[in-house]
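queue> pop job 88
queue> type: inverse folding (structure -> sequence)
queue> payload:
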């Protein structure tokens, strides 16, 4: 690949363009809003000038509802040797292309599993896809050279290729991406009219659950409109669990001993099933999750404090596997939670105490 055109310069399209441009690919940028393409060009994602001839790869990065029409127009003009889209749903656009009678031998549907709560070219980064799964959905009609160019795109973006059937992909993202967005928004919506005294009690749990509720509603309406059936199926299962959990909680309020016992059993069941599901979420580097030990350190909100604690961990010869920060409400301090291999916990604890850090029990 030497040349590419990115059609749609939002977060995903511009991030892909930045990654390609950084690796020497000549990238042409186009968008229905020329100002957005100029912004992407200004931050180094390529040029907003049209290519003089056919490019190697066209990357269609537009909302799902516009993918098929955009692809059909580009393929009809012979813009590129190969075409990919990066929409978060795959089955619908493919069926729309078939209905339009488009020759899809030069096309492969893809979906990089990466994103942010922010959108637009100014939120884009060249490293957005590094280490993240990038789904490819080839069919028997997909030309071999097209698949190779798509794999080259994934490699240049330092992502991890995953080959799936298009409809299987849509069912999967309904479970692991689209439904969590709605559930996060539903929980966050409870806070809108909550008493201020309740909101002030917000801790890390509610922050974790509601983080993605900050996403752009317009973007998510477009995504969910393209994959409503699979998402509704997952939500129906959650609704069933919610109904059973409400009944169990009501049972815990009862004066009847058997109802309280049944309520406790119902709550325990859903929590245990949650444990079992959480264990299946891939851990570091996509491997099976590992049980790390957490060391909590009180840290002041001052420049250089995080760097100092990481440096001290390095002096102890301990690799920090993961890190979280829990901010203290109304205070210029917080807890840094360092996740480490249990075998390294004692050494790190001793080193941090020796260097004056205040540790807290978890």
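queue> result:
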């Amino acid at each position: 690949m030497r040349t590419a055109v990115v059609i749609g310069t939002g977060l995903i399209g511009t991030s892909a363009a930045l990654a390609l441009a950084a690796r020497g690919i000549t990238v042409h940028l186009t968008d229905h809003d020329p100002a957005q393409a100029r912004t992407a060009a200004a931050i180094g994602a390529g040029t907003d000038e049209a290519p003089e001839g056919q490019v190697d790869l066209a990357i269609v990065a537009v909302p799902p509802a516009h993918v098929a029409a955009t692809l059909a127009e580009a393929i009809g003009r012979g813009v590129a040797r190969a075409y990919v889209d990066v929409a978060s749903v795959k089955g619908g656009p493919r069926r729309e292309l078939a209905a339009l009678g488009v020759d899809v031998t030069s096309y492969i549907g893809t979906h990089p599993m990466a994103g942010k709560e922010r959108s637009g070219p100014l939120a884009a980064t060249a490293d957005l896809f590094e280490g993240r799964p990038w789904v490819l959905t080839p069919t028997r009609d997909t030309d071999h050279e097209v698949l190779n160019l798509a794999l080259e795109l994934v490699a240049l973006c330092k992502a991890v290729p995953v080959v799936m059937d298009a409809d299987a992909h849509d069912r999967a993202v309904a479970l692991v991406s689209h439904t969590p967005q709605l559930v996060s928004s539903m929980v966050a919506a409870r806070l809108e009219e909550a008493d201020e005294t309740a909101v002030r009690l917000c801790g890390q749990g509610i922050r974790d659950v509601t983080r993605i509720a900050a996403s752009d509603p317009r973007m998510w309406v477009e995504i969910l409109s393209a994959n409503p059936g699979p998402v509704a199926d997952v939500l129906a299962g959650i609704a069933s669990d919610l109904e059973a959990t409400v009944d169990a909680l009501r049972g815990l309020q009862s004066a009847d001993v058997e109802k309280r016992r049944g309520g406790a059993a119902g709550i325990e069941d859903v929590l245990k099933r949650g444990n079992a599901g959480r264990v299946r979420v891939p851990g570091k580097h996509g491997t099976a999750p590992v049980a790390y030990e957490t060391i909590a350190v009180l840290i002041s909100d001052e420049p250089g404090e995080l760097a100092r604690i990481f440096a001290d961990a390095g002096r102890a010869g301990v690799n920090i596997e993961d890190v979280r920060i829990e901010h203290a409400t109304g205070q210029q301090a917080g807890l840094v939670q360092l996740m480490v291999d249990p075998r390294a916990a004692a050494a790190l604890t001793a080193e941090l105490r020796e260097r004056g850090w205040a540790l807290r029990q978890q």
